[in-house]
Predict the 3D structure of the following.
Amino acid sequence: MKAHPLFVHLRGALVRVCLALLLPLTLAACGGGGGGMIASGGVVGTGTAGLVSVGTISALGASRVTVNGWDFATAGASITINGQTATETALKVGMVVTVQGVTQPNGTASAVNIEYHAEVRGVVTGVDTAGLAFTVLGQHVQTNTQTVFDGGTFATLLNQYVEVSGFRSSPGELLATRVEIQPSVTPGVPLTVRGVVMASDLAARTFQVGGQTVDYTQVPVAFLPPALANGTVVDVKGTAVSTGDRLVANAIALVPTTIPGSDGAQVELEGIITDFAGIASFKVNGQAVDGRAATISGVSGAVPADGVKVEVKGKLVQSVVVATTIEIEQTADFSIDGTADAINVSAGTVTVAGQSLRVTGSTQFEDKSAAAVRNFGLDAIRVGDHLLARAARTPKELVATRIERLDPGAPPSSDPSTKAEGIISEFVSVASFKVGSRMVNASSAKFDSGTAASLANGKRVAAEGTLSGDVLMASRVEFTDDGSPPADATVEGAITAFVSPGNFVVAGQPVDASGATYDGGTVADLVNGRRVEVIGTINSASVLVARKVSIEALPAVPTLEVEGRIANFVSAANFTVAGQRVDATKATFMNGTAADLANGRDVTAKGPVVSTVLQAAQIDFHDSGEQEGAEAEGKITNFVSPSNFAVGGRTIDASAATFRHGTVADLANGKNVEVHGTLVGGVLKASTVDFDD
């Protein structure tokens, strides 16, 4: 890795840093403002020549953090999280950070300061399942295969409190790199949003950040930024959303958007291009960039333009980054779920399910197995580990964009991972109760044979969803009371902590299967990682005494998932997607049929690879003019008419819909609805609208 001279990068209010090991410098952050966008960890500060790296944390090590391919030593670094002093353990994969650092003659780098700020913190009020997007505090948040979810999944977002880190592509539009989900919301929890001030009304003391109205009547004039005006970038803090979905601010701070450092400072920044007026003039995270002298690399055939995600390297010249390289970042179009066959740390490769993947400095690593190794990276992978890899195909190879280690018996990522059935106890709220011995959060669940209001101690339910730590984040809850006392409890999941047939754990539930009958296998199949369903009764010691153990079959062949446009189409048995040969003769088709296969169609193909050919078990069409089965859920916003309003950021046309628990006259901003229908272009043509209020 090449050496970089010193550059110190500062952000926020007045900051002073002394670098005693180099030469005494007094550094002060300059004021900022003006138009443009800024992402979490956006670039501001002063300094002489040096190194600042703004981008996503891709991996963590022992006293190390990787950002934009730089492996920074963090010993002695000052770390702040949302304005508060923090330790290294607060840094997480997927956070967008600003790292101020120095390089050594041997090419290594050390961090002097690491700063992270969330883009938005609040409660999710709408979810667009078709678009993989959601709404929080008026911000339309897009997710993709690189988005890190912590504390839940996309399926459990609605009504949850989240903290989002990412990059702005326009006012109110955010690409999430990390979404941290908290299962419960306590009074006084911080609500924050960063972005460009729009529609400022000095008389009413309000303005907009994206789709969020901010009411700052409670902020004394003396504490308002003097330069507050349309086009400035602000950080708004509050604790309540009032009538009309207004965020009541208790503090507002300006966020500078440019690098006011000395000419010659080295800069590396990751983000989304905005304000593109040509290669000589565009912005990344609000910072002006001149790319005329840059070498452009990355995605073959792609060019810089608004909305394109890039990594820019260059030097600061009169407040403009003069780029030497512009790398257009790859989008993952492969998903490989299988075991690690080989690891070569020196070559930077790992083989998963027979597919060789190259690892780069931008590859994200996360250990989601029971081991939960924080400092997880290529050197921590062992042959036989269960890995889920996302990758992009280049003309020469597959490049890993994200690698997760999972438990040996973990199901495919699209399947619910855990199920709990039994009697509710310790009921506090829809977000906190027990089923058997399993804690459950059903804030985002669908309910069968009852509603959230029916939850109570003594009720018998079956809950399924995804584990977040020890909490089951339920996506579905079914009431199973039949009027008679419950006899059985059921748990499903991978075996852990196996000691003997009379002592092991499934989905957090201690199990004694010493007297059980077996289906699909024998007692010899009880090993850590094997998925089972256990039925029995829970004794006074909270142990499930099994009556029956059903042993799930092992997956026959690791699966591969590719996404992209069909090319080289000959027949259903012979075409390619993202360069991968596909045979779809035995596939199940979603949102289309085999007759719809043709060059140019945008599909996802899933299945095992046999002799280098993906034998598709499922083909999903998702580019056609119409997509059946689309849905959106949440609060109505931007209501114009029954044929023009939004839910979860998705435009809805309900002019031909059937209404449940209400009528068309009840459509209004703030109403909670669940919409089902057909996606036509970017509009969801509703067939049914359910009022949830």
Q: What stands out?
A: The two ends are 57 Å apart (CA to CA).
